[in-house]
Amino acid sequence: MPGEKIVSLSEAVQEVRNGDIVLLGGLIDARRPMAAMFEIMRQQKKDLILLAFVALEDPLIGAGCVRGVHGCYTHMGIFGKAPCLQRAVRENKIIIDDIGHADSMLCIIAAAYGLPFVGSPYSLGTDILNPAYSRVEELRQIARNKDKIPAVKSQMIDNPFSDQPQRVVLLPAIKPDVAIIHVQQVGTEGTVRIDGVQGYDSFDALAADKVIITAEEIVPEEYLRRDPNRNLIPCTEVDMVVHVPWGGHPTLVPNYYDLDLEFIKRYQLAAKTPEGFEQWAQEWVYGIRSQAEYIQKLGAERQQKLRAVAPFGFAPRAGLVKLLETM
Amino acid sequence: MTAYTPKEAIAIYSARLLKEFDGKSAIIGIGMPVLATLLAKRLYCPRLSASIESGSFDVDIKEIPFSLFGARLTYGCSAQLDNLAVLSAAVRGKVDVGFLGGAQIDRYGNLNSTAIGDYLTSTDRLAGTGGAIDIGCYAMHTITVMAHEKRRLVEQVDYLTTPGWYVKNWPDGNMVHRGQVGLPGGPYAVVTNLGIMKFAAGGEMYLDQYFPGVSVEQIQEHTGFDLNVSGATEAEPITEEELHVLRLQVDPLNLYGTR
Question: How confident is the model at residue A327 (pLDDT cuts 50, 70, 90)?
Fold first, then answer.
């Protein structure tokens, strides 16, 4: 049936099960599926294991949804420390298994391309390879699908194809249960067009068992199919489609809106204490019953300030004319 | 002479260091390296090709970015691919300079950006590995910026995130020269608010220049290991032009909080 993949946000997030390995699309503070994260909080999901970068996921951690991370980053970008993550580490409520940026991507790329494992040169000489520091065993205890977490973190071998001795690190394919990606445009059947930095998203969609797309706009498939080279994810890899305008706020969505610095800084300050976090979450997550209500709460003035300007895709800070003068 | 802050000194002196890499390639990390590179490209090395682990190749940044992964990186770049396409340039031998921020560093240039204290029980998480590990493993020259404090320049980093000249050889974890585990390149310089350090042939950090108004004793006091200062000279003073370009053109709204 045409358009049958289109569902509500709450329906889509119901697909996330406790103990799932979840891949949240975008990167750090760019095109993050924030509305979907807030819905995960509202549905009180537990024991989730996040892969790759963990940054604006901080409210998810504050709500107790995340038990484990197998990834390469735990700050809020240039904003600095992630308050709920820091608290969860102090209180021993989260397991973080560190890996490098390239290596975390390789585990997903391997899954995307159906490879059982890949050979990597990226972490030689570092404590990533310290056998005493591996925490995959602990992540296995949390995961709903235990065999999706590798039995060992990595394995070092000698390159069998090289005349010269060369150490190579084998990394396992890690297949997420769910990928949730926020995009600019998606077709009614699930074809995805992304603008700007794509992060791991094309690989996420191939690797994950279930793919949920939240989008600023749902558009006719036919429109996107006029220029297939511009489409990053095919409809065949997408299970659910949700229309969520401003679904990336407060992160940036190229061509739509810019990073809401004030909002993120205010969150960071509030979340320093558990009480402050609860208050913030009540105001911006639990007390919000729909995306329309969230957008209304943002208000027209803030929306206008954040709105991206063509062709740049961001909102020139001192206005367009000033930007053109300095160029 | 206009007064300037320690952070402005880091930005300007590291911009000067990039001068010799005009016409070469770099991968730039988040934060101060971005500020310093934008300044360097305006003043000293307009043909330095900078790429970002956002997958943005040969960026041409019109307005200083806050996020490293937004439209300000994509607009005007040569091609917007995935992250690994940029990071792999280092493995493929194409990255002359890796420009990173660091939290902790030892005398061999090993960086820690993961956690302070005993790793398994640490309650003080830092940024994590990010792309620093990939860049530091394979860039021909790594430049690191950081604040010059005793708790940062340490005898031994708590966690070895980014490899310096002597790295860990697994499975036993013994320290060996980075070449022995197959890593090319290595640390080139460290720029702090007090001076510039470089690395001797043996892989050990030494003081190359101290900034005007700073004494070598001050530098030794703020360093947590024995730093060879015998050959250090005073750096050339910061110029009005450098401050003007930094304050009025590169970061007019002081987003990076340098002043």
Answer: confident
Q: Bridge-partner residues for A95, per DSSP?
A: A68
At A109-125, the pLDDT tens digits run: 999 999 999 999 999 99
Q: Which residues of B touch A29 (CB under 8 A)?
A: 66-67, 69-70
* Selection from B191, B188, B148, B132 nearest residue B165 by Cα: B188
Residues of B with active-site annotation = 53
> What's residue A1's pLDDT?
82
- B72 contact residues in A (CB cutoff 8 A): 312, 314
Q: Is it the case that residue B101 has pLDDT exceeding 90?
A: yes
* Residue B202 burial (CB count, 10 A): 10
pLDDT digits (tens, 9 = 90+) for B141-197: 999 999 999 999 999 999 999 999 999 999 899 999 999 999 999 999 999 999 999
Q: Considering only alpha carbons, which residue of chain A is nearest residue B158? A: A127
Q: Which residue of A has its CA nearest to B162?
A: A126
Do B82 and A252 make contact, defined as CB atoms within 8 angstroms? Answer: no
In whole angstroms, give the CA distance from residue A105 to residue B161. 17
User: Is 90 exceeded by the pLDDT of residue A227?
Assistant: yes
In Å, how far is A221's CA from the nearest CA of chain B? 24
Q: Give the pLDDT score at B246.
A: 97
Alpha-carbon distance A306 to A323, whole Å?
A: 16
Any idea how long chain B is?
259
pTM of full prediction above 0.90 = yes
Q: How far is B65 from chain A (nearest CA, A)?
A: 10
Measured between beta carbons, the chain A residues lying within 8 angstroms of B161 are 126-127
Say whether pLDDT at A175 is over 90: yes
Question: Residue A29 and residue B70: Cβ atoms within 8 Å?
Answer: yes
Nearest to A70 by CA among A126, A14, A142: A142
Residue length, chain A? 327
Query: How far is B180 from A125, CA to CA, in rounded Å?
Result: 9
Are the CB atoms for A120 and B159 separated by under 8 Å? no
